[in-house]
Design a protein that fits this description.
Blueprint (H helix, E strand, L loop, with lengths): L2 H35 L21 H9 L2 H32 L5 H13 L6 H11 L5 H26 L2 H9 L4 H12 L1 H17 L2 H6 L8 H10 L6 H21 L1 H7 L8
Helix pairs in contact: 1-12, 2-12, 3-6, 3-9, 3-11, 4-6, 6-9, 7-8, 9-13, 11-12
């Protein structure tokens, strides 16, 4: 074996070892949280930090369901996430296709305006939104929160989907029109199937944002029966007298699990959804 190949293999081995170490360091907090979740009540008070539990128990997981309305919080988060995803993606797909394919006056300015709105700090709009929702009687309303989420995530979805639509060859659409396809058939039978990876990835990113969103959820949902999971987690550790870190970490792991399952389920779409397409010869 030549010296050049040996050096290349040593370099690749060193790089892989480095990446493995980085991954392990990133997993330490997660492993510690899991260890704490399966430990007794005193696990968080010990001076030693260990990623292996000294005693194993699932009572903290059972306590989350028994003592707190966790399933209700889960249902609320599902309603918020799916409702936002449907509304945001429904508008974003049509708007992104229009921005990608049609030429009209002010197109670039509108896109830049949307980008500016997306960069605007959400916390600065809190007071105005609160006054507006109070007037419209949308405080403590899931529909009001869905409107906020859909408005903010629609902008992100438009930009993300437009970039993918730009990579779909216009020749495919021209050939379909020659074959007699209408605009509706072109969008539903040609464009959407081709853009399916990008639609799935963008939808999941919208869902993850809503699932983890904390600021608006704790501001506009004001009682424990309307809390999302983010607000519910806050309530688990808000009281100094009843705070239980093992139960909190157990709930946090259960909140994270559905997102991990979804992420692993769409891995094959992540690559194709974020890469450009081309015309086959």
């Amino acid at each position: 074996m030549s010296t050049k190949k040996i050096k290349k293999r040593i370099g690749l081995f060193t790089l892989n070892v480095f990446f493995i170490i980085i991954c392990f360091v990133g997993l330490v907090p997660i492993l510690y949280a899991f260890t704490l979740s399966v430990s007794g009540d005193g696990g968080a008070l010990t001076s030693k930090m260990s990623i292996l539990p000294t005693s194993f128990t699932l009572k903290n997981y059972a306590a989350v369901f028994r003592e707190k309305p966790f399933l209700l919080w889960f249902k609320n988060s599902m309603v918020l996430s799916i409702g936002t995803m449907i509304i945001a993606m429904g508008f974003a797909i049509i708007a992104a296709y229009a921005f990608s394919r049609f030429q009209f006056r002010g197109k670039r300015k509108v896109l830049l305006l949307l980008l500016l709105l997306n960069a605007f700090p959400q916390i600065l709009s809190m007071f105005a939104i609160f006054r507006l929702f109070k007037t419209l009687n949308l405080i403590n309303s899931q529909m009001g929160l869905i409107l906020i989420y859909a408005g903010s995530m629609c902008i992100f979805s438009i930009w993300n989907m437009k970039g993918y639509f730009d990579t779909i060859p216009i020749e495919i659409e021209e050939a379909s029109k020659i074959d007699g396809a209408s605009n509706g058939q072109l969008l539903t039978k040609i464009i959407l199937p081709l853009a399916l990876p990008a639609i799935i990835v963008t939808s999941v990113m919208v869902l993850i944002f809503v699932w983890n969103e904390y600021l608006f959820a704790t501001t506009f949902l004001l009682n424990d029966k309307s809390y999302s999971l983010a607000g519910g987690l806050y309530q688990l550790q808000a009281d100094d007298y009843t705070r239980s870190w093992p139960m909190f970490t157990a709930a946090a792991i259960m909140v994270s699990t559905p997102i991990l399952v979804i992420f692993f389920a769409i891995q094959k779409y992540m690559v194709s959804g974020l890469t450009a397409g081309g015309v086959k010869g």
